[in-house]
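sanity check this fold:
=====
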Amino acid sequence: MIDEVKSIAVVVTDPKKSIEFYTQKLGFELRDNNEHWITVAPKGSRTLLHLCQSGKPEPGNTGVWLHVDNLEKSYDELSKKGVKFTKAPKDEGWGKYAMVSDPDGNEFWLLE
């Protein structure tokens, strides 16, 4: 049985710009930076985002959900850092979420 997601590929056009976004704005750690194998992750996480360089990314909803303890606080902190939100915090009854976009238009869910 599959019991854990280890790596999720995210298509990017500029690896240096993406590394800066994930580490300096979202607070992720740079785990690997070896040519094609570039990975970042939240501190302490065992799941990695593999930043895959491609000339033609397909922007939009990645389906990747990132957990936060306090959505409003995270929204305020990330907004102050210039993170683009494509959907402001919303409570759907089943949970609170917002959506952020990276420099290539890849959207990620922030879920409380």
The beta strands are 7-12, 29-34, 37-41, 48-53, 60-67, 84-91, 96-101, 106-111. The chain has two helices and eight strands. The first helix runs from residue 15 to 25. The chain has a mean pLDDT of 91.
